[in-house]
Amino acid sequence: MSKSDKFWDSKAKGYAESPISDELTYQKKLRETQATLSTGMQVLEFGCGTGTTAVYHAPYVQHIYAIDISEKMIEIGRNKAREADIDNITFSRGTLQEFNAKADSLDAVLGLNVIHLMEDWQSAITEVARILKPGGVFVSSTACIGHSYLRFIKLLAPIGKRLGLMPDVFVLTESTLLYEIKKAGFSIEKQWSHGKNGISVFIIARKI
Q: Residues of the signal sequence (predicted)?
């Protein structure tokens, strides 16, 4: 188990019990995502956390594969699905690369609040493009702190990670993120900023 796995396992219970920090923005994300979904879709959410978003979207699609590096997060997600009487979500522990879906096999991929936590985030975007069908949808929400004072977190992150106080955090800019998404073969359908000082960006992109 890596330090990031251990960190998120340790945070799972508190994460599940914490209220959503910006409910209005979260509901907007749900609505805009669901507008791209349909009942025949096969969907993957990587970095699904405790499964709340997967449970909300499940009634709108055929099946959701929900993955996360934290087994404790996954366990909570399974319980949420059972309590909501949702049976079309498959929760499993693992990374996007370990999921290893077939090329052109999925209708939608969600990566919410996770890309900036991935060292190989450019490769993750390339993998999303590989596994999506032409016309498939990629929905992401990403903290882009490269032009904010929070960019200096990169100086503290290695120490915080060693002490088990924080996970990996990588400094992205919105322009770099958009460049990589477009380079991977996507067109941008929606893009808007949210969060403190607008440092997070919500994107709906479609594979060309």
A: none
Q: What is the total residue count of the chain?
A: 208
Specify the number of domains making up the chain: 1
Instruction: Give dist(CA 35, CA 79) in Å, integer.
Output: 26
The CATH number of the domain holding residue 18 is: 3.40.50.150
Q: What is the dihedral of CA 79, 98, 14, 195, to 10 degrees?
A: -110
Task: Of 83, 6, 5, 89, give the one whose Cα is nearest residue 43.
Answer: 89
Please name the residue that has the structure tokens 């993955």. 67
pLDDT in tens, the chain (208 residues): 455 788 888 888 888 888 898 999 999 999 999 999 999 999 999 999 999 999 999 999 999 999 999 999 999 999 999 999 999 999 999 999 999 999 999 999 999 999 999 989 999 999 999 999 999 999 999 999 876 545 545 545 554 555 455 567 788 999 999 999 999 999 999 999 997 778 999 999 999 9
Range of the domain at 136: 3-207
- Beta bridge partners of residue 192, listed in sequence order: 202
Give the Cα separation of 42 and 50 in Å (integer).
Answer: 20
